[in-house]
Each structure stands twice: as C-alpha cells, then as structure tokens.
Amino acid sequence: MVGRVRYRLTGRTALAFTAAIGVLVPAHGGVDARWNAPGTLPGVLAAHAGIVPAQQAAPAVTHREERIDTPAGPVTIDVVVADLNRSEIRADLLTGGVVGERATVPEHADRAGAHAAVNGDFFDLARSNAPAGPSVRDGRPLTSAVPPGRRLAPPVPGSEPGDVLAVDASGTPRLDRLTLDAVAESGKTVLPIRTLNAYAVPVGGIGLFTPDWAGDRNAALCGSDVDRDAPCAPDRLEVVVADGAVTDVRPPGGGPIPPGQQILAGRDEGAAALRALEPGDPVGIRYGLTPESGADPETAVGGSPILRGGEPVPGVDAGAREPRSAAGFTGEGRLILLTADGRASTSAGLTLLETAEQLRRAGAVDGVNLDGGGSSTLVHRGQVVNAPSGEAHRPVPNALGIVAN
To answer: Which residue intervals define the domain Phosphodiester glycosidase in the entry (predicted)?
Structure first.
C-alpha cells in the first residue's frame, strides 16, 4: 500500500514560496499533504506567491508532482488534470502522418501545440512500430486491434484487445471497446476483413491497409496469433483496389499506399479467398470501428483498463514494478494523465495495482494502463515533467494530448 504522500514544489512556484516566507524549499519535496486543509500554510503561501485561489477561475489544465512511499521505496508521480468540460480544450490523438511513424512525446506535443501529452498505446517496437490496439483520430478509424496474443502489454484480467480510452464529440471520456466491422464485397462474394492497418493479421484472415499505412504489409502476414517470431504464412497474397475495382493481384509488399487505393492482404485461407479476385472485378470495401457503448469516439487510444467504477480491477498485477503511464477520468469529465518514474535509485516504479490506486487517488473513477518502461513520458506546457528511464526520449507512434479548440 502507498504510504504518506509528500508534495514537491518546483520551478517558479518554489522560488516564489521561498521569497514569500524567507525559507528554503527542499528540491525533492517536504510540503506535507496535510497542508491542504483550509486555513493552513498553503493558503498563506498562495497569497504571497500570487497563486489564484480555488474559488477563482482555475486553469483548464494543471500539473502537479508528488513523492510517494511504496514498499519498494519512494516513487515520483506526475499528474496532469484537464477539464474537458471547458470549451477551450479537447483531448486529441497525436500521431505522425502515417501509422507507425514515430516521434517523441515532446515532438508530438509541439506539432499539435498541445498543452499536455502522454505517450499512448503499446506498439510493435523496432518492427512496424504500429500501435497494438484500436486508434481513432478526429473521428476517423486509424487502426484496429491485433490478435490478443500479439499485444505486447502486461496482461490485465478482463481486458480485451479492443479496449480503449475514448472521448466522444461532446468531450465525454469513457472506457469503451471498439470492434472492427469490415467486409469486402464482390458480386455475391462477401469476404470478412479481420484487421485495419494492424501489424498482425490473424492466421487465416484478411487485413485491410489504407493510405494511413506505409509499412511492410508482408510482415503483417508472418508470425502466429501468439508468437511474433513464428514463420510467415506459406500462402500470402494481396489485392489492390481503386475506384471500386481490383487493379492488381500480387505478392504482398510494402511502402506508401497512394491516395484512393486500398489493399487487402490475406494469409492461408484468407489468401485463398482473395485469389478468386481478378483485375477488373468490382469490389466494395466497408469498414468501421463499432463502439460497445454506442457512442462514436472522436478520439480513442488503446489501453488495458486497470480501474473501473472507482476500484482497481480484481486480480490486477501487484508484483512487477516499472515506470508507468496511465490515463483516466473523473465522474465530472476531467481527464487525468499520470506517469510514475522507475528503474532509478530515486524512484522505484509502480505495480499495476499501485498505478490504479494512484489514478483513483487523483480522482479517477475509470482508467487504463498505457505503454510504460522507456516509453513513459509526460509533457506539460512544452516541458517533459517526468524523468523517463531511458538515456533519450523514446519515439512512439501515438500520444494522448490536450489541445486548444
């Protein structure tokens, strides 16, 4: 269990506090949580430092850093809270120009002019670099989930590959599950499509690749549903569709897909089904991500739910301790972005259970685990506010950002 929490004061706020009361504020904490009580010292400090009292207009996006005690030692937590009820901001999925195009979180945030951003979903590191789960940007589906055994993430009881943190057009965040609904039709032939711009097409299936994908399509037909290093499917084929008709039938390749083209790539039984198509055959392709909630997402990022209804998911791991990134939301619609530093003598990292508890402590009722380890990066007002565990900021395919409307 997490012990007493100490708050750290940094930067201009710490200097202002120091000037106001004529004492030194330690660089690594020392302001006790009990000071939050009405009429106690923070009120005096705030008055001297020019901080806006809570009853006045609060900023739409705030950041705080805390030091907490865990059984493994102290951990540094950074928390950003964004009030999505405010008309001036919204949540957005930050990506490159195509699926799998990576950038550091500061780069993603800078390009979008984001107030804050945290790294997003787990991804196919050092291969396609594509995210493992569904993703939606500006209401448009970018990716669907890979098979469960190909998601490179710690298992969470009850989670499914289609799980996401989603935000609808009204700014309401929710946990949801997005399922790909996609078919290719040619005459009386209806071919089910199993994945959208995914780095792993299920054994025997057909995957759809759009101009949002510029990577290796052949590699998506390799491995098994549980082993990324299994051999490639012996039978692989792709069909190019443009203007509602087949334009080419060929071995699967890679590289950018021109605007107006879509490519169906099949393996095993999926390849055999595609082989019935010939150049000139009419083909209609329909696809979408169907939300379990019934609310179409404007923004969605893949993640495993670890907090539901204000309680950690039963059985969530309480052993492995790592740097963590997570996101959740309050009952009032505030979005919470959280990181925990780890793999350092000064910060031991969190377990998934502790991560859920920290989300709850920050006010969340529901939340998801995002990619962690060397990917964990949180940006606020153009600055990386946590301490990533790698020597350099890791490029990632997507980030969850808070941007101006």
So the answer is: 237-402
Nearest residue to 266 via CA among 202, 206, 185: 206
CA distance 283 to 244: 5
For the record, the structure tokens of 119 come out as 């790294």
Residue 108 backbone zone (phi > 0: left; psi -120 to 50: alpha; other: beta): alpha
Check if the beta carbon of residue 135 is closer than 8 Å to that of residue 401: no
pLDDT tens for the 405 residues of the chain, in order? 333 333 343 333 333 322 222 322 333 333 333 223 333 333 333 333 334 444 456 799 999 999 999 999 999 999 999 999 999 999 999 999 999 999 999 999 999 999 999 999 999 999 999 999 999 999 999 999 999 999 999 999 999 999 999 999 999 999 999 999 999 999 999 999 999 999 999 999 999 999 999 999 999 999 999 999 999 999 999 999 999 999 999 999 999 999 999 999 999 999 999 999 999 999 999 999 999 999 999 999 999 999 999 999 999 999 999 999 999 999 999 999 999 999 999 999 999 999 999 999 999 999 999 999 999 999 999 999 999 998 899 999 999 999 999
Cα–Cα distance for residue pair 132/153, rounded to 1 Å: 9
Task: Give, as one character, the DSSP assignment of residue 365.
Answer: S
Contacts of 75 (CB under 8 A, 6+ apart): 67, 68, 69, 340, 341, 342, 347, 348, 349, 350
Angle between helices 41-49 and 11-21 (to 10 degrees): 100
Strand pairing report for 206-209 and 195-196: parallel
The model's pTM is 0.86
Q: How many CB atoms lie within 10 A of CB 166?
A: 26
Q: Are 135 and 122 in contact (CB under 8 A)?
A: no
Q: Return d(Cα 264, Cα 145) in angstroms, integer.
A: 17
Asked whether the beta carbons of 2 and 70 are under 8 A apart, the reply is yes
Q: Are 121 and 131 in contact (CB under 8 A)?
A: yes
- Distance, CA of 175 to CA of 9 (rounded, Å): 33
CA distance linking residue 218 with residue 199, whole number of Å: 10
